[in-house]
Every structure is written in C-alpha cells, then in structure tokens.
Write a structure and sequence with these properties.
The complex is a heterodimer of chains A (about 300) and B (about 400). Chain A is built from eleven helices and four strands; from the N terminus they run ααααβββααααβααα. Chain A has about 300 residues and is mostly helical. In chain A, strand 2 and strand 3 form a beta hairpin. The longest helix of chain A is centred in the N-terminal third of the chain and has 32 residues. Chain B has about 400 residues and is of the alpha/beta class. Chain B has two domains: about 220 residues, 3-Layer(aba) Sandwich (Rossmann fold), CATH 3.40.50; about 140 residues, Response regulator (Rossmann fold), CATH 3.40.50. In chain B, strands 2-1-3-4-5 form a five-stranded parallel beta sheet. A four-stranded parallel beta sheet of chain B has the order 7-6-8-9. A three-stranded antiparallel beta sheet of chain B has the order 10-13-14. Classes of the chains: A mainly alpha (about 300), B alpha/beta (about 400). At the A-B interface, helix 1, strand 1, helix 9 and helix 10 of A face strand 7, helix 8, helix 9 and helix 10 of B.
Chain lengths: ~300, ~400
C-alpha cells in the first residue's frame, strides 16, 4: 500500500473519529453531571442538522447567497436551537426523573429519540427522503498521487479540533467548568458551596446538545447528504465510544471516538472478507475492551459510578 | 349474563338494520383487497407512490357503475423490514375477507412473506420487488409478479455498459437479498460480455460512511463504479465519490431510479448517472397517459414514483379477476394462473409457470439536467454529452 493511500485512510478515519468524539463528549457530559444516559442524543444531532438545513433554505429564499454568511447562519441557528432544546429536555424530561431509577431516564430519552426521528420523517416536507446538504465550504482539492485532500475536509477537521479544545478549556479552565466539575463530583457539596445545581445541569445539557448540533452540521457538510435516520447509528457509536473511553471523562470520550473510527477503517481496509463486517469487527473489539477494562480506558477517578 | 346477551342481541339487530339500510341504497357486496409496501423508512417515497396507485385502481373501480362489488383497500406498512413485513403479511393473509393482495417493493420482505400467502391460499401479485427468487425459488401458485426481475435488468445493463466501451468495474452492493441478487446477476452477465470486476464490496444497508471502501476502489481506478442497492445508500456513495476525487462513471440499478436520488445528490453530481428499470417510463407505457391523468385528477400529495404504474396494473388485474370469478381466493388464484396476453397499462402481462410476467421490457435511463431521461431521448446518445471517462 503506498503512502498516499495510507494518508487517505488516515484522513477518512480522523474525520469519522472527530464526529464520533463530538457525539461521545455529549454523552460523557450528561453522565458526568447527572449520572444519566440520554439516548436521544443522536436524534438531537439529526434535528440540529435539519434546523441548519432549513436555515440554509430560508436564507437562500430571502436572497442571502454568500456562502460564508449562510454557514454562519446555519451554525448559529443549528447550535443555538439545539442548545435550547437540550436545556428543555433536561428541564422537563430528565430533571423530574432525577430520583427515579436511571433506567427510567434511559427509556424516556430513548422514546424521545424515536419521537424526534419520526417527527422529522413525517412533518418535515418530504422528510423520508435523503436531502442534499449544500457545500458551503470551498471545494478546492489538492491531490498528491492517490491522496486527495479537499479544503472543506481540512477546514472541518480543524473546526472539529477547535470545538473539542474549546469544550476542554471550558470544562477545565473556566468558572462554569469548575461548577460543572463540582456538580459532577458531588451534587450535595456543590449545592452547599452555593452552586445553582439546576442551572448547571441545564447549561451542561445545552453545551452537549450544541456540540452535537455542530457535529451534525459537520456531518452534513462532509457527506453533503442528510437523512432522518442519521442520528441513530451516530448515537449508538458515540455512546459506545464514551463507554469504552470511560464514561464521565472527556478525554476518554475523545479517545473512544477516534478508537472506534480507527477500528472501522481498519476493519474495512484490512479484513480479507467483505467490508460489510467492519461494524461487527469494531463493535466486537469494543466489547473485548469493555470486558478487559469495565470502567473504560481512562476511568473516572471516582469509580463508584460504574 | 342475561344483560350481556340482551345487549349483544340488540347490537346485532342494530348492525343488521344498518347493513340492510346500506344494502337498500347500494346493493353491491363489499370485498376487501390489500396492499403492502414500505410506507415509512428510507424507501417510503416509493411505497407511498405504490399505495396511492393501488388506491387509485380501487377508486376507479368503485366509481365504475358496472362493477359487481364495492372494494375496500386495506394498506399496510412493511417498513422494508422482513420482520415487520412478515407480521403484516400474516395479518392480511389471516383476514379471510381479504381476497387478493398487491404487495412488496422490498425483495427481502417479499422473500419472507411468500410462504405465508401460500399457506393461507392468498393470491397476490408483486408490484416492485425484483429479486428473481420471489417467483422462481418456489412453486407457489398464489405468487405472481407483473414487473420484470433483476435478471432481465442486469442482462441489459451489462450489455449496454460494455457497448459503451467500459472495461473495468468496482461493485458495491448492500448485503440484503436485493443487493446480493444484483451483484450475482450483474457479475454473471458482465463476465459474459467481457467486462472485468476488480473488486466487490458488500456493505450494510444503513451504512453512512463509505470512504474506506471508496478509497480502496480509487486505488484500483475502475472505469465504472456499480452500485446494487437502494436510493439512500446510492446518494451517499455518489456524494462521497466526489469527496475522494473519484471520477469513474457511476452506474446504479432500479433501486436508485427515483427523484429522491437526484434531490439527495444534487443536480451537478447526479449528472450522467445511469440506471436501468423494468418497464418503461409512465409516458412511454401503453396506458401511461391514462394513468397519469387519473393519478393527477385523484389529487394525491405524493408522486407515483417509479413503480406506481405496476402497483396500479397489479391491483387492476386482481380486481378484474374478482369481477370475473367472484370473491374467492382459490378461484382468483386459478384465474391469475391462466393470465396470458392480458392488456394492462404497463403493457402485456403473461404469467409463466412461476407466476412471473415474461413480457418485461427494460428501459435505460441517464440523469440529464437533474432529471431521469430515457437514454435514447437524451443528449448522451448522439455524443452531445458524454458519460464519465468517455
């Protein structure tokens, strides 16, 4: 295999890994503050992408056809609306069930995911068909031998990296992050220290859902295609990535996301038989890792959660 | 007990009165017929188009004063999932009031359901599924199919593409019966025509990312990338080919020949994509104009999509049968078994021993300016435009 081809596989895998990591970060944030699994996360991502897509159609309709302006509009509306939606879900579905068994939250959000998915399919105009997501980034490409890097892929990778770094800085270097970490560590003590628990939970859910919306738009820009079912597999993979990396740990989620993408790419490239089994391969390895390290690769310091 | 008995009796009396009341106004007996298709999920657009078309056949028959019965259509959603499909098939087959069925766009679902129809003696005709095994892998006399199969389709496709001068292919297919069938027959006919397949990838039918498979394909640098599967995957593969800078010609199968494919890929990228479809476009069908007029007049919100006319033809055939032999499953099966040279809107229908329509034409399509155009009518045929790599 020549170097160009190898490079191509690496870029493909990194792109996938970036998207998985962004989804996994959400799962890990929610689990961190409230010890809940929010299974509608993938579908929130999908709704965010459709919100962005609708914004694009709207902006084109009112005559704004500058790609940069459109991109900003799409991102602002998509991330903003999903942040609000995440907070609403936390306020009215997750927080009321705080003292109920965690299984209830899991079920409720699982059902909410189905509601969101079916709502888009049924009520979005022609929602059951795949939609063409516009290419808003420059599409110049550089080709070296069998390696092709497109400007939009490079920008997306960079932007994804910046968002991950941004979330990391937010969690580890700001007062808000300090509050989130305090709540994650011990809810009661955090409350005693004067932290507004409810507000922190809502903000965390808004943050996680906003990041998911960003991942969704990134997905749309990269594949130029969106559909109502796109969140389903992304949700499952993001969740597995968060678990395998160590639920509750942000570095774990990132590691898990890239690990999963790497396994999938490896499965498609190196397996001698049909590449249809690449997901089987990736999930099987994840099962093995979980059996080996039940608390994830980078375990949370307080292991009582798992 | 007594009270219960009384109320039951009075309920029956009421129902009887009502039935008599209706009977006076309209002396026709009610007969139920059924439709099954994927009305939710990724290929729901085609399913809804088929349902509307079957509905149209029933509406037209009910509006006909000479019809002997009044028909009621029961339509159910298979979601293009075999497990769901088998459930709805059982539900319909077990309802003895349902006399005939027009069912199945998804081959994987049809394969699971045909045994049920045989067990319950329910005569049916497939309206869209193209896997040959649906009719050929069994001897069930209940099973018929008005549309052609992927055998005919791939025979034409392989011959046509080699005639265009293409020599090497990479095949990507989904791992359902539908995708595997296309892979099998295309490979068979392509080899006969002297084409070479460099690699063959099976992919799962809900996969989002194909960059790994396509990167491998790119290394092999084929003339054509053949995709055997349905629209959602076809859209993703075509879009991702562009991302990796693959300039090979993209060749699809009947499963991507829908307006949703063009909408999903966008007009620029879809330009020059070729596909093959059993039958002929609605306006080229013998009864196409009639069908289009009636379909538009009925005011359905969705388009009939590629297989609507077949659903219409199959339903009309079943209704004709019921008119002729009465609402009886066994007699209807017998009637369908003897169909030769039946005149339908999709052309002549003649069933062979397996209930397969043997007069199935295949039409070649290419996307030109964001529309599926019959190859012979396109600007590609005289060289004004050229397929990729030509």
């Amino acid at each position: 295999m020549d170097v160009g081809l190898l490079g191509q596989f690496v870029v493909n895998g990194m792109m996938l890994g970036m998207m998985y990591a962004l989804v996994a970060v959400g799962f890990t944030l929610f689990f961190g503050v409230l010890d809940v699994i929010k299974f509608s996360h993938g579908d929130v991502l999908m709704v965010g992408t459709f919100a962005g897509f609708t914004t694009y159609i709207g902006m084109t309709a009112i005559g704004i056809d500058n790609a940069l302006l459109q991109l900003v509009g799409v991102l602002v509306i998509s991330i903003g609306s999903m942040a609000v939606m995440g907070a609403i879900i936390a306020r009215y579905l997750v927080l009321p069930l705080k003292s109920a068994p965690p299984l209830n939250t899991l079920l409720v959000t699982l059902m909410l995911g189905t509601v969101l998915r079916e709502a888009i399919r049924l009520f979005y105009p022609d929602g059951s068909n795949p939609k063409h997501f516009p290419a808003l980034l420059p599409t110049d490409s550089w080709a070296v031998g069998s390696f092709t890097l497109r400007a939009d892929s490079a920008i997306l990778l960079l932007a994804g990296l910046l968002v991950i770094i941004g979330v990391n800085v937010l969690i580890n270097r700001t007062r808000l992050g300090l509050a989130i970490r305090a709540v994650a560590q011990d809810e009661e003590t955090a409350k005693c220290m004067g932290i507004n628990f409810k507000m922190i939970v809502l903000l965390t859910f808004a943050l996680g859902s906003g990041v998911a919306a960003f991942a969704g738009v990134m997905n749309g820009l990269y594949y130029n295609e969106i559909n109502f079912g796109m969140g389903l597999l992304l949700g499952v993979i993001g969740f597995s990535a968060a678990i395998v990396g160590g639920l509750g740990n942000i570095y774990g989620a990132i590691l898990g996301g890239f690990l999963f993408a790497g396994l999938q790419t490896l499965g498609a490239v190196a397996l001698p038989f049909s590449s249809a089994y690449k997901d089987v391969f990736a999930f099987a390895v994840v099962i093995a890792i979980i059996a080996w390290r039940p608390t994830g690769l980078i375990a949370e310091k307080t292991s009582e959660r798992v | 007990m007594k009270i219960l008995g009384k109320s039951t009796v009075s309920a029956i009396a009421m129902v009887m009165t009502l039935t008599v009341g209706v009977g006076v106004a309209d002396a026709k007996d009610k007969v139920k017929v059924a439709f099954i298709g994927p009305m939710t999920g990724g290929v729901s657009a085609v399913g809804v188009g088929g349902r509307n078309s079957a509905e149209l056949a029933v509406q037209l028959r009910n509006a006909d004063p000479e019809a002997k019965y009044e028909y009621e259509l029961v339509s159910m959603d298979s979601e293009c999932k075999p497990n769901v499909g088998v459930q709805v098939a059982t539900k319909i087959a077990a309802d003895s009031k349902i006399i005939g069925l027009v069912g199945h766009y998804c081959s994987a679902v049809a394969m699971g359901a045909v045994d049920i129809y045989h067990r319950f003696n329910l005569p049916m005709s497939v309206w869209g599924a193209v896997l040959p095994d649906v009719t050929y892998a069994n001897d069930y006399k209940e099973i018929h199919r008005v549309n052609g199969t992927m055998i005919n389709q791939n025979e034409v496709a392989a011959k046509f593409m080699t005639e265009q001068g293409y020599k090497t292919w990479v095949v990507i297919h989904d791992t359902t019966d539908y995708g595997k069938g296309h892979d099998k027959y295309f490979t068979e006919y392509l080899t006969q025509n002297g084409g070479e397949i460099l690699a063959d990838f099976g992919v799962s039918s809900d996969q989002q990312d194909f960059t790994a498979e396509l990167t491998k394909a790119k290394q092999l640098n084929p003339d054509v990338i053949y995709f055997g599967g349905l629209t959602p995957l076809g859209v993703r593969i075509r879009a991702q080919m562009e991302k990796l800078g693959i300039t090979s010609q993209f060749q699809g199968v009947s499963g991507i020949k829908s307006d949703s494919f063009i909408e999903g890929v966008g007009p620029e990228l879809s330009e020059g994509v070729v596909s093959f479809l059993e039958g002929a476009p609605v306006d080229k069908l013998p009864g196409g104009q009639y069908f289009t007029e009636k379909y538009q007049a009925a005011g359905f919100a969705e388009s009939e999509e590629a297989y609507g006319p077949f659903a219409f033809a199959a339903m009309t055939l079943i209704l004709d049968g019921i008119e002729e032999v009465g609402p009886n499953r066994k007699k209807l099966t017998e009637y369908l078994g003897n169909i030769q040279g039946y005149d339908s809107i999709v052309g002549e229908v003649s069933f062979d021993d397996h209930g397969q329509n043997t007069v199935a034409a295949i039409t070649k399509y290419v996307i030109q300016d964001g529309k599926w155009v019959v190859w012979e009518d396109s600007e590609y045929v005289d060289g004004t435009r050229k397929l990729a790599g030509k």
